[in-house]
Amino acid sequence: MTTRKQQNKNGGTGYQADRMTVHNETHMHNDIAKNKSTIAEVVNIIAAFPPPEIIADNSTALPAEVVSKIQYNNVKRCRYIIDTYKSNTIDLNNIYNILEQERPGRKQKLLHIIHNCYKQQLGILSKDGTVDIAIIQEHSDSILENITTTLRTKVLESSNLNAENEDVEIAVNLIVADAFIECLVLENPEAAI
Predict the structure, then answer these.
(1) Mean pLDDT confidence for 135-143
(2) In a 10 Å sphere around its CB, with 0-12 CB exposed, 13-18 middle and 19+ buried, how is residue 36 labelled?
(3) Most exposed: 68, 86, 129, 175, by fewest CB within 10 Å?
(4) C-alpha distance across the termini of the chain, in Å
(5) Residue 72 to residues 14, 45, 61, 75, 176: CA-CA distances in angstroms?
(6) What are the residues whose beta carbons fall under 8 Å from the beta carbon of 189, sequence distance 6 or more?
(7) What number of other Cβ atoms are within 10 A of residue 45's Cβ?
(8) Shortest CA distance to 33 belongs to which of 168, 163, 157?
(9) Residue 22 is inside which H or E element, if any?
(10) How many Å apart are CA 188 and CA 181, to the nearest integer?
(11) Is 187 left (phi over 0), alpha (psi -120 to 50) or beta?
């Protein structure tokens, strides 16, 4: 068996093939980045509305089941996302329903992508294909932050994005808060019973 160094000495193409693979993978990534996405369309619609009102006194309390889920998953650093956007999740569901009417299946595909972001995070934490709730509780804030980053990247790479960075930040946080409340990300304490 010859090494790459030997192949290159002998006129082989081992190194060149690796460079070609990297070039092709980069080229494919760029092609993907130029596609439209439903999540960018959601962000565009959210961007057209005024930002959520900031309520300093927290006059609207979270429902008990959401508080229970926050405590069960040990969410601390990212609780502000849920607190800030809790009252806007109804608006987001209306947007999802409009998109669904325009082209059936879009809402479910988007929710599937969001849930897959969570499953990918669990895969990273898994040692044997399973993740204990104690591990999820220990890493819940990082999981939410990584999902937020992944979704933000998907939005920013979409060709149909027509929103400013601040709008993207607000919209993605709203999407993540809704996904948490709807049990697409992190664990539902009632399912553990």
Answers:
(1) 97
(2) exposed
(3) 129
(4) 57
(5) 52, 33, 18, 8, 17
(6) 68, 69, 72
(7) 18
(8) 157
(9) helix 14-33
(10) 9
(11) beta
Contact 112, 182 (CB under 8 A): no
Tokens, residue 17? 């093939």
pLDDT by residue (tens digit) across 97-122?
Answer: 999 999 999 999 999 999 999 999 99
Look at phi and psi of residue 53 and say left if phi exceeds 0, alpha if psi is from -120 to 50, else beta.
Answer: beta
Question: Could you tell me the two tokens for 69?
Answer: 């889920």
* Gyration radius from the chain CA atoms: 21
What DSSP line would sit under 139-193, residue for residue?
HHHHHHHHHHHHHHHHHHT-TT--S-HHHHHHHHHHHHHHHHHTTSSS--GGGG-
pTM over 0.85: no
**Lookup: tokens for 131:** 């993740």
Give the pair of three-digit tokens for residue 94: 């209306």
Structure tokens of 98?
């409009």
